Amino acid sequence: MMSSKKKILAGAIALALSFGGYLPAAGTAEQGVSLGSLSVASAAEQKDEQMKISINLAARSLALYRGNTRVALYPIGPGKPYTPTPTGYYKIQDKEVNPTWTSPEDPSVSISSGPDCPIGYRWMTIQGNYGIHGTNHPESIGHYVSNGCIRMYNEDVEKLFDNVSVGTPVEITYNRVVVEKAPDDQIVYYIYPDGYGRQDLDVDSVRTWLKGYGVQNFVSDEAITQKIEASDGEPTYIAKVYPLFVNGQKLQSKAVVQEGKTYLPAIELAKEVKVNLGWDARKEQLISDYGSAHGYLKQDTYYCEPKEAETLFHLQGTLAQDGTFTMTNGAPVAQATAEPEVKPLVEQPSANTAAQTQSAAGEAAQQPTAAAQSTKTDAAAGQTQVKHEKTLQEIEAEATKKG
């Protein structure tokens, strides 16, 4: 491109809004995150296939990815609410160093590249007259300020410019809820203001975002409500999560570590090892074929700690070096007496129930009590005796008549 090419800061255009998608972000800090070890040369060799730009208008941030790895995060200044930046999927269409700005109100007015140029020293077209560019008003970054373009600090846009090429995908979304996994395995979430007035939030919708990371049951309704009311873009750390394996089989749920306790999904464990499971709400105990142990009820989901899993399921577990929580069958432990009046959670069918130790849940749900069994047996015996005696009387009566 010739440096004399003029760029017009675009106004709003009629584009269908595209909601959804996911953009991890960490607020709108005044300076972008460094590219770190990503060198310009290495990026230039692979950027056509691996580099991607992902923009979240609600978070007012731009992330640069190489494959699935985020290598940079920058604050931006997107379009004003009445001239919003369009959402959708685009590509870098052209790039220009030292562009000239042309006024969108009066095309006869233009400013060449320099300290007075509103679009700074770099321009990347993404759609029509919309582009990613620098600015001579750095104080505007982090606010909804443009006619629809994406403003960046000059030093940030120059780094971005050097690490993308024509054809690099650009994804623009509007997501007020952002969830990500930190390097230390902590799940952290953010809720941003509704700058465009497009996305109402409630507790259930936030839980849906958290569910993808397995921590939806570890935040209270009150805490989520307060977070929505604040909508300040500040991070809230919930818990650490690890993929959960039982005897080499990966479970759907995860091992969750919160405030020093490790929580394991009790029902999934019971199903995986084919063990009956019940719940004594009064004592807050889980009861299995093997014994009883303390449990936790969080948002209608039952959990136990690893030491309880050994009692309940004969499973021993540990956090492996590969970042997974791995459980295997351990040595049997002493059986505990089944508790009465429990809620059955998991009941496993068996062809030889007499040879198994039944949980209180299974007995309560599927079998009559011993007293009931005794009553039925006595009644049946009584009926047989009555019938037998009646038959003898008939025989004696018939014999008398004949005699």
Descriptive report:
The chain is of the alpha+beta class and 403 residues long. The chain folds into four domains: 6-175, L,D-transpeptidase catalytic domain-like (Beta Barrel); 178-238, no CATH class; 243-366, no CATH class; 375-403. It contains eight helices and 25 strands. Strands 13, 14, 15, 16, 17, 21, 22, 23 and 24 form a nine-stranded mixed sheet that branches. The protein has a five-stranded mixed sheet with strand order 4-3-2-12-5. Strand 16 and strand 17 (261-265) form a beta hairpin. It is elongated and about 85 Å long.
Per CATH, the class of the largest domain reads: Mainly Beta
Number of domains: 4
Broad shape: elongated
CATH topology of the largest domain: L,D-transpeptidase catalytic domain-like
Instruction: Count the E strands.
Output: 25
Q: Percentage of helical residues?
A: 10-25%
